[in-house]
C-alpha cells in the first residue's frame, strides 16, 4: 500500500536532542492537562446543581482533552525518549484513532458551544428554552460526528500510519500524497473538521458582536436583574472565545502542514515541520482549564475553599497522638489541680484555716 518498512517508518527522523526536548515538553503538557482538566471536572461535580446548560460543553471539552492526554501523551513521551516508535502497527492505529476522535470532538464541541452562545444572545426567546437535556444531546452529536470521521480510516477510506518524524501516529500522509482515495479523505477531513467548524465559529461570534454592539445602549437602561443575566452571558462568551482562539492557534499549523503533505512533494517537507505543529496541536489540552478557571471566579472560590479544608484536615491528621495527649493533660491539670496530701493541699499553697479558727502566725 505504499508504506515504508516498519523499521524505517517507526525510526525517528529528527535529531536526538530535539526528540528529548519534545518528550520533556509533552511531559509538562501532560502534567498540566491532567491536573487542570481533572480539577475542572472535580469543581464541575461539586457545582453540578448550579451548572448552566452551556457549561456542559466546557465539561465535555475537559473530558475529551483528558482522553487525549491519557491515550496519547504516555506513548509519545516514551517513544520520543527512545528515539523511535515502540509499540508496533496495531497500537499505532489505536493511537491515531484516539487522536482523531478526541481532537475532532473538541473542535465540534467548541463549534456547538459558539452556536449556542449565538442563539442565546441574538435570539433570546429561543435561548431561554434551552435546558440541560438539549446540552447533553448536542454533546452526544459532537461525539457521533467525531466517531464518524475517526472510523473512516479503519474502513480504508484513508489510512492510519506513522508520522513522518517517526515517534507518533496519525493519518498516513505519504499515502495521502500518492493515492487519490486517501487524498480525498484528507480533503474531506480538512473541510468538514477544520474549515467548516472555523467558519461557523467565526460567523457565530461576528453575529454576537454585532448584536451586542447594536443593543449596548439599550442594555444600559435595563434593571439590575437583566444586567446580571447579561454579565453572565458576557462571561460565557469571553470564555468560549478565549478557548476557541487557543484551539485555532494549536491546530492551524498542523492543518496547513497536512494539506501541504497531501498536495505538495512530501519528500521536500522536513520531518521537523510535522513534529513542531504536532506539538502545538497537543498543547490544546491545557487551554480550556486555564481559561475557564481564570475567567470564572466561582470555580476559583470552590478550589480555594476545598484546598483550605484539605489543609486543615491534613494538619489535624499530622499532629502526633502523644502531643495531643500531653496537651489534654496540661489543660486538665490547669483546670483541676490534683491534691498531693490528705488535706487536699496543693504544692506551694498554704492550707486555708477552718471556719471559725484563729490563724496562728508562724515563728521566724
UniProtKB/TrEMBL annotation:
A molecular function (GO) term: G protein-coupled receptor activity
Disordered, as annotated region: 336-364
Gene3D superfamilies membership: Rhodopsin 7-helix transmembrane proteins
Keyword Glycoprotein: yes
Disulfide bond keyword on record: yes
Pfam family of the protein (one): 7tm_1
Compartmental location: Membrane
Transmembrane segments: 20-45, 57-82, 94-123, 135-157, 185-212, 232-252, 272-295
Keywords assigned: Chromophore, Disulfide bond, G-protein coupled receptor, Glycoprotein, Membrane, Photoreceptor protein, Receptor, Retinal protein, Sensory transduction, Transducer, Transmembrane, Transmembrane helix
Topological type in the membrane: Multi-pass membrane protein
InterPro entries: GPCR_opsins, GPCR_Rhodpsn, GPCR_Rhodpsn_7TM, Peropsin, Retinal_BS
Residue intervals of the G-protein coupled receptors family 1 profile domain: 36-292
CC annotations in GO: membrane
Domain of life: Eukaryota
GO biological process assignments: phototransduction; visual perception
Protein name according to UniProt: Opsin 7, group member a
Organism from which the protein derives: Hippocampus comes
Amino acid at each position: 500500500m505504499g508504506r515504508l518498512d516498519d523499521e524505517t517508518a517507526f525510526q525517528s527522523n529528527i535529531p536526538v536532542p530535539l526528540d528529548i526536548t519534545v518528550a520533556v515538553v509533552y511531559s509538562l503538557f501532560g502534567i498540566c492537562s491532567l491536573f487542570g482538566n481533572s480539577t475542572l471536572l472535580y469543581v464541575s461535580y461539586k457545582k453540578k446543581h448550579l451548572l448552566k446548560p452551556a457549561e456542559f460543553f466546557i465539561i465535555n471539552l475537559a473530558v475529551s482533552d483528558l482522553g487525549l492526554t491519557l491515550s496519547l501523551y504516555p506513548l509519545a513521551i516514551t517513544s520520543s525518549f527512545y528515539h523511535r516508535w515502540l509499540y508496533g502497527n496495531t497500537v499505532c492505529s489505536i493511537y491515531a484513532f484516539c487522536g482523531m476522535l478526541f481532537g475532532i470532538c473538541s473542535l465540534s464541541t467548541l463549534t456547538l458551544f459558539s452556536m449556542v452562545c449565538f442563539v442565546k444572545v441574538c435570539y433570546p426567546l429561543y435561548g431561554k428554552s434551552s435546558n440541560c437535556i438539549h446540552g447533553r444531546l448536542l454533546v452526544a452529536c459532537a461525539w457521533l460526528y467525531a466517531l464518524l470521521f475517526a472510523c473512516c480510516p479503519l474502513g480504508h477510506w484513508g489510512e492510519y500510519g506513522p508520522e513522518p518524524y517517526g515517534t507518533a501516529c496519525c493519518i498516513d500522509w505519504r499515502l495521502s500524497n500518492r493515492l487519490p482515495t486517501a487524498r480525498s479523505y484528507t480533503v474531506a477531513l480538512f473541510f468538514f473538521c477544520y474549515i467548516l467548524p472555523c467558519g461557523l465559529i467565526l460567523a457565530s461570534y461576528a453575529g454576537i458582536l454585532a448584536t451586542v454592539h447594536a443593543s449596548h445602549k439599550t442594555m444600559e437602561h435595563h434593571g439590575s436583574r437583566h444586567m446580571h443575566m447579561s454579565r453572565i452571558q458576557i462571561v460565557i462568551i469571553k470564555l468560549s472565545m478565549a478557548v476557541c482562539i487557543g484551539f485555532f492557534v494549536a491546530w492551524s499549523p498542523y492543518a496547513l502542514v497536512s494539506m501541504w503533505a497531501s498536495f505538495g512533494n512530501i519528500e521536500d517537507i522536513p520531518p521537523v515541520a510535522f513534529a513542531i505543529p504536532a506539538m502545538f496541536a497537543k498543547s490544546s489540552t491545557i487551554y480550556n482549564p486555564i481559561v475557564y478557571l481564570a475567567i470564572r471566579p466561582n470555580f476559583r472560590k470552590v478550589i480555594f475553599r476545598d484546598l483550605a479544608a484539605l489543609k486543615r484536615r491534613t494538619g489535624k491528621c499530622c499532629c502526633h497522638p502523644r502531643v495531643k495527649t500531653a496537651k489534654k493533660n496540661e489543660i486538665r491539670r490547669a483546670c483541676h489541680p490534683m491534691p498531693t496530701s490528705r488535706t487536699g493541699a496543693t504544692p506551694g499553697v498554704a492550707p486555708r484555716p477552718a471556719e471559725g479558727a484563729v490563724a496562728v502566725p508562724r515563728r521566724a
